[in-house]
Design a protein that fits this description.
By secondary structure, this protein is mainly α. The chain is about 70% helix and about 0% strand. The longest helix is centred in the C-terminal third of the chain and has 33 residues.
């Protein structure tokens, strides 16, 4: 059952295939996640108390995660929920650093996050709440599987930080990436492989390389993540045009293909539908792999169960992402006083210690 009745979906954003063929699920721990993550945001000082009280539940960050990772141990789900909330806070800081020209502040944060990725235990008490909160999440992720999984997860997040840095430079110089450049960059800023990596501790089983690199598994993973990123672009297009954002599939189409906003939205919608079809085709192929895995060695049935858990949770992304965008206050631009400034963020420039606007 959904957390609450589905919101109305505008026709331009509707995807009947999701509503019909991708039933929404929620982890049974979901009701406790809201309170836990709300408390965590306060403890880590990632949002002011008044903003948490007024906006945290309506942003639906915990609803989003509770629909992604069915079967996760409760404590792991709580860590992922906090990390999801952190990710949105980081994305907002990135945007405000661009808006206020805080180049030194952003660069310092990027360096600190790189360091915390490798040694989170050393950054738990960092003065910057974003660094301390990040370190807390990564501390809770590491050690659940092997050291090689930890190293892979860290390696994948270093790529995300670098991608955000590239996006920062693009916005500071006014560069709108081409469509192909944008798709590659978006796959990194959305943290595609981070969310896919987390399927393994959720299943409590580390997938062998031959499964993770399996052509059908890769296609399904990419389809579910491209769907999530591009549907976000479709729903965010009014907000990001108002905020003079440069990174959105629709904005790249408008800039480099010379089409109108309406035509760009229709093209993004078409591409989003294509990812659903791609996933369904790959899903059938992966089931054949899972069936074959049942007969591999003493742990074949465990491996097959982990493969099926991973693919089922990839499937869950479609419905969770879809409904999140119509329930979360993050995308209700028409209700904001200023379409370019979300009401749930604190946007007061401060004086930086090196004299820069911060």
């Amino acid at each position: 059952m959904p957390a609450y009745p589905h919101a109305a979906v505008p026709p331009a954003l509707a995807l009947p295939v999701i509503e019909d063929a991708f039933p929404r699920k929620l982890h049974p721990y979901w009701p406790k996640l809201q309170q836990r993550t709300r408390t965590w945001l306060l403890e880590k000082r990632l949002m002011p108390a008044d903003k948490v009280e007024k906006y945290a539940d309506g942003l639906c960050y915990t609803d989003l995660v509770a629909g992604y990772y069915i079967g996760a141990p409760d404590e792991l789900l709580a860590a992922i929920a906090d990390f999801s909330a952190w990710f949105f806070a980081w994305d907002d800081r990135h945007d405000r650093d661009v808006v206020h020209g805080r180049t030194a502040s952003w660069r310092r944060l990027a360096v600190q996050l790189h360091a915390a990725t490798e040694a989170p235990h050393l950054h738990l008490d960092h003065a910057d709440p974003l660094v301390a909160g990040f370190a807390d999440c990564f501390r809770r992720f590491y050690g659940r599987l092997s050291r090689s999984w930890d190293a892979r997860f860290a390696r994948h997040f270093h790529v995300v930080i670098d991608a955000y840095d590239e996006e920062f430079r693009n916005r500071m110089t006014g560069k709108v990436p081409t469509v192909d450049e944008y798709i590659g960059l978006r796959r990194r800023t959305f943290a595609h492989w981070i969310w896919i990596d987390l399927l393994e501790p959720v299943a409590q089983y580390e997938l062998p390389t031959w499964v993770r690199k399996n052509e059908a598994f890769m296609r399904a993973a990419l389809a579910t993540q491209d769907f999530s990123a591009w549907y976000n672009d479709l729903c965010s297009l009014p907000k990001e045009l108002a905020g003079k954002e440069l990174h959105n599939l629709g904005i790249s189409l408008i800039k480099h293909e010379g089409i109108s906003v309406r035509e760009a939205a229709a093209e993004v919608h078409r591409r989003v539908e294509g990812t659903v079809a791609e996933f369904i085709a790959a899903e059938r192929d992966i089931e054949r792999t899972a069936s074959a895995a049942e007969h591999i060695g003493a742990h074949g049935k465990e491996l097959a169960a982990a493969i099926r858990s991973s693919v089922e949770n990839m499937r869950n992304w479609f419905s969770s992402v879809y409904w999140f965008h119509h329930e979360s206050g993050r995308y209700q631009v028409d209700t904001w006083d200023d379409r370019a400034t979300p009401p749930y963020i604190t946007d007061a420039p401060q004086t930086d210690q090196v004299g820069e606007r911060a």
